[in-house]
Amino acid sequence: MKPLLVPDNRGKDFKVTPEIVKRIVDKAADLKKQEKRIRIKQFTANLRKNESIKLSTKTVREILIANDMIDVRSRKKRPKFYQSLCQRIPNSLLSIDGSEFTVWLGDSAFKFNVELSVDVNTFAHTAYSIAESETAREIINVLEAHRKKWGVPIGILSDSGSANLSEDVRSYIKEHGMEPVPVGPGNPKGNGTDEGAFSQIKQAIGDIRLDMSSQETLARSILDALISLYIHMRNRLCLHNARCTPAEHMARPVTEKQRSLERQKLKAHNQCRAIDEDTQLKLDRLNWVIKYHEIVVTPEALKRAQHTIKVYNLKVIGQAEAAFVKSIERKSERKTLPYFFGILRNIQQEHDDEALKNYCRERYNHQIMQKLERQENSRPDTATVDDVLKMLIQAVRANGRIVKDLAVRKAREWTHDLMRAYNYIGSLKKKFSDALGNLTDLSMEQKQQSWELIEQFLD
Could you tell me the CA-to-CA distances from 123 to 146, 199, 240, 356 in Å, in that order? Predict the structure, then answer.
């Protein structure tokens, strides 16, 4: 089979020139004078329609950032740090919530609110109550039924509904020594235990429709609903969408070749999970912060923190430590792990924004583009060895990646032009060697880098 080669036409359809950048910046400046907000998608569409400037939204946004027309805001997805509400013992945290169910008797619909309590650790459905609406009395009935059968839970997890926040419910919870735990943002558990339970109930029961035309049809409808429920729950013994039970799947024969391939996959996976030196330094810094400041942290929160800290820069972690120390000196109650990660996230966002802004400036800043264009136009038609070396000097001394890549690309093009004029490449190579040796304003390391690039060009 021959591989399908897809041509790369990026930058060939519409080239970004200093004149194009100037027109885009002028349009943005006009909007600012009118005190109008620049909306990137709408602004790009107007450029395409009115100015015949066919650029992507990403490119237009980078051009505006490079010329200080809009604020930079980088978006890099990182794992959030949270302290999980998952429990390790039964009857520790009880989730309670309500959901609406509809029962059809013939053509008449009757709506009820089902209040359900589910243990977060075991997913056991402990008590329920059926009423016309969600009230404080129904919540207390469910909690009382759970308490009589399973004992008093440690905490009650609920949303911010009026019934859950009523005075009667709060008095009942306080009277029996339970801890109210409100559902908040930044936690994947939330009140999803009850929501997941209601989702499974509705998926298993389906529409509740009873035919009331006669006693026989009513009995048949009830039997049909019960058997449908039993079949649905019985079929759930198979995992996911498997076509057989786990026992049948385990009995299937496996060849030695398949086992060898899976063994190689596991070895590769374990090698990828090995902690490198940079990651170990980050973990050491995190452990030092926790130990030095005596931060109380659960094993689950520590595991999440170790997973989250890996995606942050080591330099940013050091700056976050300094800011954290200053903050807890003012208020000691800020000495928590979520507060430290909040500072770390904000500082990392500032660094990402600044890096994106520098990248856009190096690539699309109007003044820099004009300077590079003047340098290119001032070059003679036939490049010389000295021209190539001057461009290589800019490459080895440049700090920005964009400028460095552009200089290397130009030096490569000029070297290839020179190679066409020589029948023997060795003589051209000697000219480069002599000219590079005569340069006195370059260090030995910079000369070595330049010579390696020249050898690459000649090869």
Answer: 14, 13, 18, 46
Name the pLDDT band for 229 (thresholds 50, 70, 90). low
Q: What is the pLDDT of residues 366-379, one digit of tens each?
A: 887 777 777 666 65
Tell me: pLDDT of 184 over 70.
Answer: no
Query: Could you give the angle at which helices 57-66 and 40-50 cross, rounded to 10 degrees?
Result: 100
56-90 tens-digit pLDDT: 898 899 899 988 888 888 877 788 777 665 556 77
Pairing of strands 179-182, 108-119: unpaired
Beta carbons of 37 and 335 less than 8 angstroms apart? no
Distance CA 331, CA 93 (A): 31
Task: State how far the Cα of 137 lies from the Cα of 314, in Å rounded to an integer.
Answer: 54
Q: What is the 3-state secondary structure (H, E, C) of 282-322?
A: HHHHHHHHHHHCCCCCCHHHHHHHHHHHCCCCHHHHHHHHH
Cα distance between residue 86 and residue 181, in whole Å: 13
Amino acid in position 387: D
Distances (CA, A) of 366 to 14, 19, 185, 427, 455: 17, 8, 43, 41, 34
- Find all residues with CB under 8 Å of 447, minimum gap 6, and list them: 436, 437, 439
> How many residues make up the chain in this entry?
459
Identify whether the C-beta of residue 286 lies closer than 8 Å to the C-beta of residue 250. Answer: no
The overall pTM is greater than 0.85 = no
Beta bridge partners of 97: 116
For residue 70, what are the contacts with CB-CB under 8 A and spacing of at least 6?
A: 28, 38, 40, 61, 64
In 3D, which of 275, 351, 298, 348 has the Cα closest to residue 78?
348
The DSSP line for 155-179 is EEEE-S-TTTTSHHHHHHHHHTTPE
Which residues are CB-neighbours of 424 under 8 A, at least 6 positions away? Answer: none
Tell me if 110 sits within 8 A of 103, measured CB to CB: yes
d(CA 309, CA 98): 38
Q: What is the DSSP string of 108-145?
A: EEEEEEEEEEEETTT--EEEEEEESS--HHHHHHHHHH
C-alpha pair distances (Å), 361 with each of 29, 109, 165, 229: 17, 64, 53, 63
314-361 per-position pLDDT tens digit: 999 999 999 999 999 998 888 999 999 999 999 999 999 988 888 888
DSSP 69: S
pLDDT given for residue 217 in this prediction: 73
Residue 66 burial class via C-beta count within 10 angstroms: exposed 0-12, middle 13-18, buried 19 and up: buried
